[in-house]
């Protein structure tokens, strides 16, 4: 009994072969399908998470871009208003300065005029006094005597007033 | 580590060759027999002969085990190795096959189909290294066919045994015996188809070898010395025939066997009836839950 015949049916061999197939099924299930499917599911999850992240980043970027654009628009308007403000302020200040300088100049002129007037009055007074003194002296010499000072003064004053009237 | 696993996957085949060389006597002439029996374990019902077919199928399983480990060790989500690409290709193509032939409900069958494909194809391909193909032993293939038969019957009974029994009386009750015969014939035909194809390949190989030896003796027999005995015609031609009988036929039979398994199991499963019953059961369960809730609320 070295070799089997071409067809020999043996129940034990059949059972063992059946068990072999089940064992190989379990081997394939645990050692091939499970790890491979796990890794594929993991990769799918990773890929989708990366996609989500990319989408999120893109959304964020878009939002940032929009806000920047808005701000840029606002900034232009702001710059305009600032420029306008500055121009207005400068103009106002200009006017004020002009006005102030005019004022100053006028006051200086006024002061100068007043001074001149005062000087003129002083000079007149001085001249009058001189004339009085001179005329008194002359009169004293001419008359040869002491004249009444008060009378004299009055006389000369009236004379000068008459002069002024001419 | 990787190379070690690959060596471990190849080692069983080499061990098979060594066992054959050491223990199996060389056949002489036209010698068509079954597997060589190493020893027999005493068991009731004829005892268990530990034959080449048994040993070789165990060696194939061992080899496939290490091959799985070799393929799946060090899996990564990015920067995949070639091994991983092969592993994923195997898994995905088997799953696609199961999905297209059986539908979503039977996705759990994918490893089973892969096991049939792998075991059958690798067993048949053992002839390429000169080993006895386990698939040319009726007991081996018969075991698979019986497992398939059990699965077919299990899925036919999924919607209740009454429907299963009733299905024998269709289309007319007096055809029941024929239906029973066809039911039983399924695994037998599957087993014999596979077994017969592989065995016939081996037999034809042996016959052609013998024929070519005779022919070359006739043609070159007059040459002097060893040249006269050398079978020149056996160079080349048997190899070409072996491409069909061993490589193509082996893979084809593996594919046919798994295909028939898928079709029979999915075809025997009364899908509509099963899902109808499932829905009914779920509705009933819901009702019961509501009743319980109501009583609880009442208390």
Instruction: Count the DSSP helices of chain B.
Output: 10
Largest Cβ-defined interface: A-B, 40 and 55 residues
Low-pLDDT residue intervals, each spanning 5 or more residues of chain B = none
- Total discrete domains of chain A: 1
Report the order of strands and helices of chain A.
HH
Radius of gyration over C-alpha positions of chain A, nearest whole angstrom: 63 Å
- Determine Rg of chain B (CA atoms, Å): 26 Å
Which range best describes the helical content of chain B: under 10%, 10-25%, 25-40%, 40-55%, 55-70% or over 70%? over 70%
Describe the structure.
The complex is a heterodimer of chains A (about 170) and B (about 300). Chain A has about 170 residues and is mainly α. Chain A has one domain. Chain A is built from 2 helices and no strands. In chain A, helix 1 (about 10-145) crosses helix 2 (about 150-165). The longest helix of chain A is centred in the middle third of the chain and has 133 residues, at about 10-145. By secondary structure, chain B is mainly α. Chain B has a domain at about 140-270. Chain B has 10 helices and 2 strands; from the N terminus they run αββααααααααα. Chain B has helices at about 1-25, 50-70, 80-100, 110-125, 140-155, 160-165, 175-220, 225-230, 235-270, 270-299, and strands at about 35-40, 50. In chain B, helix 2 (about 50-70) crosses helix 3 (about 80-100), helix 3 (about 80-100) crosses helix 4 (about 110-125) and helix 4 runs antiparallel to helix 9 (about 235-270). The termini of chain B are far apart. The chains are: A mainly alpha (about 170), B mainly alpha (about 300).
């Amino acid at each position: 009994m070295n070799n089997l015949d071409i067809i020999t049916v043996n129940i034990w061999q059949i059972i063992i072969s059946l068990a072999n197939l089940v064992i190989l099924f379990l081997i394939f299930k645990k050692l091939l399908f499970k790890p491979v499917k796990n890794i594929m599911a993991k990769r799918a999850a990773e890929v989708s998470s990366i996609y989500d992240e990319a989408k999120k980043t893109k959304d964020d970027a878009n939002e940032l871009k929009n806000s920047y654009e808005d701000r840029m628009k606002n900034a232009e308007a702001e710059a305009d208003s600032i420029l306008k403000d500055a121009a207005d302020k400068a103009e106002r200040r200009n006017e004020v300065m002009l006005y102030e300088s005019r004022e100053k100049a006028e006051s200086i002129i006024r002061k100068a005029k007043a001074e001149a007037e005062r000087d003129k009055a002083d000079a007149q007074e001085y001249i009058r006094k001189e004339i009085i003194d001179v005329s008194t002296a002359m009169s004293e010499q001419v008359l040869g005597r002491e004249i009444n000072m008060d009378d004299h003064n009055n006389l000369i004053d009236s004379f000068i007033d008459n002069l002024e009237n001419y | 580590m990787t190379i070690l696993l690959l060596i471990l996957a190849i080692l069983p085949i080499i061990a098979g060759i060594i066992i054959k060389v050491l223990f199996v006597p060389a056949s002489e002439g036209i010698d068509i027999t079954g597997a060589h029996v190493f020893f027999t374990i005493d068991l009731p019902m004829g005892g268990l002969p530990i034959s080449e077919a048994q040993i070789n199928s165990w060696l194939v399983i061992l080899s496939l085990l290490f091959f799985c480990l070799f393929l799946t060790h060090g899996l990564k989500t990015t920067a995949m190795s070639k091994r991983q690409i092969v592993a994923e290709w195997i898994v995905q193509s088997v799953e696609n096959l199961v999905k297209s032939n059986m539908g979503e409900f039977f996705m759990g069958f994918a490893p089973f189909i892969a096991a049939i494909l792998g075991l059958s194809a690798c067993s048949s391909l053992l002839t390429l290294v000169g080993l006895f193909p386990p698939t040319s032993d009726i007991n081996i293939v018969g075991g698979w066919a019986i497992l398939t038969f059990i699965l077919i019957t299990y899925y036919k009974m999924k919607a209740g045994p009454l429907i299963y029994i009733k299905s024998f009386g269709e289309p007319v009750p007096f055809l029941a015996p024929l239906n029973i015969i066809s039911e039983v014939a399924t695994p037998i035909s599957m087993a014999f188809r596979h077994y017969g194809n592989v065995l016939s390949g081996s037999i034809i190989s042996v016959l052609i070898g013998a024929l070519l030896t005779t022919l070359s003796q006739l043609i070159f027999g007059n040459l002097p010395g060893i040249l006269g005995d050398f079978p020149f015609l056996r160079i080349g031609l048997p190899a070409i025939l072996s491409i069909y009988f061993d490589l193509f036929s082996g893979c084809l039979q593996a594919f046919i066997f798994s295909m028939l398994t898928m079709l029979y199991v999915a075809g025997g499963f009364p899908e509509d009836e099963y899902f109808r019953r499932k829905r009914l059961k779920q509705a009933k369960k819901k009702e019961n839950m509501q009743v319980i809730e109501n009583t609880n609320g009442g208390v």
